[in-house]
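Quick check before the chapter quiz. The format below is the same one you will see on the exam, so make sure you can read both the input and the output lines.
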Amino acid sequence: MTRTRYTKDRGLTTRMVTTMFLIGLLYVVLVGVLLAVLGKFWPVILIFVGVLFIAQFWFSDKIAAFGMGAHEVTPEQAPELHGAVDRICALADMQKPKVAIADSDIPNAFATGRSERTALICATTGLLRRLEPEELEGVLAHEMSHVAHRDVAVMTIASFLGVLAGLLTRFALYSGLSRSASNSPLGIAILVIPLVSAVVYAVGFLLTRLLSRYRELSADRTAALLTGKPSALASALTKVDSQMARIPTRDLRKAEPYNAFFFVPAFSSGESLGRLLSSHPTLEQRLDQLGRLSAELARP
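Here is the expected output.
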């Protein structure tokens, strides 16, 4: 964790380390299967995996910011947003991140970046138009907590294996290699690739989802403690969640791939399976936690 005044969360740290360890095991299994099946092509495999990992780690935040339409703004262009970020940085004793705005009516915010030095905080025009200053500060403190705890970088690395497994599955299914299964032992062996890749993808997906839900609760908690205003963050959560219902479904569908980055997901489900696959805890869970924090801070 970056040295800041954000409260340390040992539970989050433990989950990040555990997730990375399990992701590493899955990575070894997947690469081992590839080497066993396509052993003579191992240099190509290692180069491919290495290039993909570097691209995912170094450019995923930039790709995500670009995909969500974020453009960096100066203090002169967005004085209120920069002022709120400055206040949070002073409270947290953090280096100021790059500040951006996304021209979207969807009320949301997100943080990207592998470290405090490369961090970017973005708010949509829809969020800036709807929130009061204290509510906006609560949301920005939440997003900057992700930077302070470095869980954004962990999520980036963790999601790499899912991307790799998905690409390998598509390659094996659409390359036509599987049609040689009845003609050679190599063809039968190649059939293992999509099966193993699919299992790795599913397990990796669940691991990142479990970590993602906890990190959102952690960011709510540490942001509320930093600002001392859990009620402002709770008000922002309630307002943003209710406003989502007024956004056209077409726009929400376009934003859905970036749910893991958002303060509030574009879509949320009340079904048990939907909650299992969701990138965020339910609104009720988040408000309950903030309510308890508000009661604790109100005690003499």
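If your answer matched, good. Residues 10-298 form one domain.
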